[in-house]
Amino acid sequence: MLFADFNDDARLWIYGFSKPLTASDQKNIRMNMNDFMASWTSHGDKVKGAYHIIYDRFIIIVAENTISGCSIDSSIKVLQQLDENYNLNGLDFSLVFYRNKGNVFAVSRRQFQKLVQNGTVDHHTIVYNNTLTTLGQLRAGEWETTFDKSWHAKTFKKSA
Predict the structure, then answer these.
(1) How does pLDDT run across 50-79, given as a tens digit for each residue?
(2) Any alpha helices (H) in the chain, and if so which ranges?
(3) 11-86: which CATH number, 2.30.30, 3.40.50, 2.60.40, 3.30.70?
(4) Which sequence spans correspond to the domains of the chain?
């Protein structure tokens, strides 16, 4: 299980990348994230944190302890640096992620609406809810779920 050393109430952040991460991208991410995790603090206290790269598309970060706004901002700065240094776009929150034929795709909201309308995305399509805030939600299966069980079904309608 991911993040086995963390409680269900651990804070969670999910960042999706606009393109699949290459082996080189992942190496750069690991180098930067390992350095960050080793020095991550909140009000002077070490943050118990970890991350995973999943499906060559996502970084999932968890943290226990009291996390301040400044310490959250510092984690976002790492992702901004990855974008600046390696052209990795992991902070575009307008993207919608879904799985089709075994591959994970990232598309704009407008493109996703078209996929719903033309039937490419239906109630069985796996979608990703990157808005989760706790590890317990991830463990409960709320991240990777079918279209009909997600917020996506309320937002993107076939008849729109």
Answers:
(1) 999 999 999 999 999 778 788 888 989 999
(2) 23-39, 69-86, 109-117, 135-139, 151-155
(3) 3.30.70
(4) 11-86
